[in-house]
Amino acid sequence: MTVTLAPQVSAPRKTATARRTRGRAFLYWVAKHAVAIALGIMFVGPLVFIFLTAVMSDRQALTANLWPTSWHWENFSKIFTNGELLTWIYNTVLYSVLGTALMLVSSIPVAYALARFRFRGRKLAFLLVITTMMLPPQVVAVPIYIIWARFHLTGTLWPLIIPMLFGDAFSIFLLRQFLVTIPREYSDAAKVDGCGEFRTLMRVVLPMARPAIAAVALFQFFYCWNDYYGPLLYVGTTPDNWTLSVGLATFRAVHRVQWNLTMAATVLAMAPVIIVFFFAQRVFIEGVKLTGVK
To answer: Containing domain of residue 67, as a range?
Structure first.
């Protein structure tokens, strides 16, 4: 009886075949996600360039050599030598935190009223809110500046913070879009148990609206942190009240030759926003999806 044995493939041949299979799979993945990879490189590229320039020496910054020949981490401490950057950070945090908090306090009740109450002129009121979103701030800059000047508040951050007490049209719109999706049965059950409108809002509606509230809070925080036009208009002539956006413009003028220090200050200005979004991106994306923003 003759037994025929199947030819065995050697281990190196199996390894080479597996390597070629993985290589083809990797090339297929790259081709499938080519557009996303290109957009990712376009987005991350400038951030990487800013960081690498921030840790370069003064002579190497903005030269053809894009990789640091020596790492100068002390650049991040040099920008704090005159103390101005700490003042700018404090003013920016004050503006962003107070502006976001006051916006939430004023916008949530308005959005709740537009979403839940039935009254004459409700649609007209909502239309007026949307209309204010289409009005450029530059159109009303002069009369509003005159009003704040008569109250002797120009030169401070209060003309930027106090208007948040009257709500934000974009935030009201997003919150209202989410609140109309919450079934009325929840609030009706709370009212049957003896809850008034305010208690229903605080105990029932707000816990269910956390994703939307987080989304509008992050939108407002990012806007205040990056706002340049408002601080330049009201505190441009008062260096003690400058925010980071205005201060960095003058910082670049003072250190126009030392681009490594300018980039180091820029990294510190961007870091809080990136960190906040990194930790809150899950709830932020969920809130954006639920509010219907495209």
So the answer is: 12-76
Tokens of residue 42, six digits: 């376009």
pTM, rounded to two decimals: 0.80
Burial, 52: exposed, middle or buried (Cβ in 10 Å; 0-12, 13-18, 19+)? middle
Give the Cβ contact number of residue 5 at 10 Å. 5
Looking at the structure, tell me whether residues 100 and 56 fall in a common domain: no
CA atoms within a 13 Å half-sphere pointing along the CA-CB vector of 110: 23
Contact in structure between 204 and 186 (CB atoms under 8 Å): yes
Query: Of all helices (H) and strands (E), which one includes residue 288?
Result: helix 259-291
8-state DSSP, 168: -
What's phi and psi for 208, nearest 5 deg?
A: -80, -20
- Residues 55 and 118: their CA atoms lie apart, in Å, by 59
* Whether residue 162 is found in the same domain as residue 47: no
Q: Helices in 70-139 by DSSP H: which ranges?
A: 75-78, 84-116, 122-133
pLDDT in tens for each of the 294 residues of the chain?
555 554 554 556 667 677 777 777 878 888 888 888 888 888 888 888 889 988 888 888 878 888 888 888 888 888 887 668 888 999 999 999 999 999 999 999 999 888 888 888 888 888 888 888 888 888 888 899 999 999 999 889 999 999 999 888 888 988 888 888 888 887 888 888 777 888 888 888 888 888 888 889 988 999 999 999 999 999 988 888 999 988 888 776 665 667 888 888 888 888 888 888 777 777 666 655 555 444
Q: Which residue, 177, 179, 178, 172, is CA-closest to 132?
A: 172
CATH code of 242's domain: 1.10.3720.10
Q: How far is CA 242 from the centre of its chain?
A: 20
